[in-house]
Amino acid sequence: MTLNQAGTFKFHCEIHPAAMKGAVTVSGQAAAGTPAQASAGPREVDVGAVDFAFQPKDASVAAGGKVTVTNRGQAPHTITLDDVQLDTGNIAPGATAELTAPDAPGSYSYRCAVHPARMRGVLVVLGRDTDDLNAQAAAPPPAPAAQSGDGGGGGPGGGATAFVLATAVVAAFLGGIGVSAFALRRRTAT
């Protein structure tokens, strides 16, 4: 991540937010006469609030871009950013609210103020020359490579189904020790 603006930027671990947090302070000034380059990120992003999750949970937008939040659930929800004072306020079921993303690039955690323990996400504000990792993560996975028709499948048991393997294990057990132990118990009982 590149921070192009002077200031203090808070951060935290999404997995351990209470125990792992800190701040980065950037000092200095931007070069005079250098216009800020626009972000390659989307100017608008839509986030759905559903009972009880955000869809998508992590979203990206250009600095100063528009974030539209639609409540697709049955309960009221909000998007409240943790590190800056941005909040949609309560959004009734079926309603929509908008907020303007911060101007400073970075990752901003957010939560639903009504359901803070269950509904959390991250808004990534993209700066110039920053790849949108959320868009890459949302891309469909590549199609699996076609397997050859020989049934080999590329390894031990390749091409065999789980059912075939399980049947073979049970048959080996019953055909070996399992049957003799069963027969031994039956003989001693008579």
Describe, in plain words, how this protein is organized in 3D:
- It is a single chain.
- This protein has helices spanning 133-138, 162-189, and strands at residues 7-12, 21-26, 44-50, 53-55, 58-62, 66-71, 80-81, 96-100, 106-111, 120-126.
- A hairpin with an 8-residue loop joins β1 and β2.
- The chain is of the alpha+beta class and 190 residues long.
- The longest helix is centred in the C-terminal third of the chain and has 28 residues, at 162-189.
- It has a domain at 39-130: Immunoglobulin-like, CATH 2.60.40.420.
- Mean pLDDT is 74; it is low at 148-158 and 177-184.
List the helices and strands and how they pair.
Elements: E1 7-12, E2 21-26, E3 44-50, E4 53-55, E5 58-62, E6 66-71, E7 80-81, E8 96-100, E9 106-111, E10 120-126, H1 133-138, H2 162-189
Parallel strand pairs: 3-6, 5-10
Antiparallel strand pairs: 1-2, 3-4, 6-8, 7-9, 9-10
Strand portion:
25-35%
Helix content: 10-25%
Euclidean distance between termini CA atoms: 78 Å
Quickly give the structural class.
alpha+beta
Which CATH architecture of the domain at 39-130?
Answer: Sandwich
Using the coordinates shown, work out and report the CATH topology of the domain at 39-130: Immunoglobulin-like
Order of helices and strands: EEEEEEEEEEHH
Radius of gyration: 28 Å
Q: Report the top-level CATH class of the domain at 39-130.
A: Mainly Beta
The fourth-level CATH homologous superfamily of the domain at 39-130 is Cupredoxins -  blue copper proteins
With helices defined by DSSP (H or I, 4 residues minimum), what is the helix count? 2
Task: Give a short account of the largest sheet.
Answer: 4 strands, mixed
What is the count of β-strands? 10
Rounded mean pLDDT is 74
